[in-house]
Amino acid sequence: MKKTLTALTVSFMAFLCLSTLQAKIVEESFYIQSSDQHIFELLKSRPELTIDHIEKGGFELYGPKGLKEFLVTNNIPHFSMKIAAGAQKAKGQYPTPEEIEKELKGVVSKYPEIARMFSIGKSVKNRDLWVIKLSSNVNVNDERPEFKYIANMHGDEIVGREMMVRLVKDLAMNYGKDPQITNLLDRVQIYIMPSMNPDGAAASTRGNAKYVDLNRDFPDFSTSDNKDTTEGRQPETKAVMDWQKTRNFVLSANFHGGAEVVNYPWDTKADKFPQEAFIKELCLEYAGLTPYISTSTAFQNGITNGYAWYEVNGGMQDWSIYYRKDMQITIEVSNNKWPEYSRVDYYYQQNKAALLRFIERAIP
To answer: Where is the active site (predicted)?
Structure first.
């Protein structure tokens, strides 16, 4: 095994020399079909690579151009994560970012007293980064607690975006009709960002238009990139960071795909989270109200500690908590990142009670 590791290391160094590498770049993606701990540790040791969604049979691996050559040279079992023909067909059923924008503008125009839509910035390709605020007296910033949902920061994880569109419509259409929804809009200022990465959604890529993984692009208190500054970051990351400076969110969640679990901090280090009992209570409650998550066979009770699952440096969840005192969890809503579009309503209905209850937890 020592000889094998030496060969792997040499080959990887050759890979480094042939590539112009930066951390967070996700130009190539593969599923590593191996439970070999030595291979895992080697790949994990490289800051240029991103490991994601670890499970018994393997894990996802993202990196710059040249990654495939490295894997082939070293006989590391893998297959491409490019969208297959069946998934391409499913992808074609989903709305474009422009169609999502049009739909949301239609909702807001119909309910102007409780819904407001505004852009917090632009993507690499100059698409607006839309946020919808829902609240009674929506144009007034008052003392009511502020809450937010953000989805689709990984462009190829699309279900969360669709769930947020449905939630916006539900909240707007049922204010004054549904007692729970009416209470939420009367007592909480709700902000929903359906897509943080519209360029990635349009291209079906994890990263933005510059192939950067936005969930590795935030300041991280546990690494050398620990200055809470937007300098050198992607426009989508900058927009969220600048926006949060103007707000006082007390509770948040962000949505991903590729697994079905509720994830709690820390993601970036093994240390116990200071408010672990409370954050686990929130996660257990969300999972418990979502039938297919609570019955997970991969995660006990449908929840996991982030770092215990896999380390994430530069993630939005930990940044929000550490630098903005915004209690945030991460919700993985579907094993399949691009399910048949007809399945989206299933995911929304399964999550709806949990989505509403989680907003309620922002009420003092």
So the answer is: 332
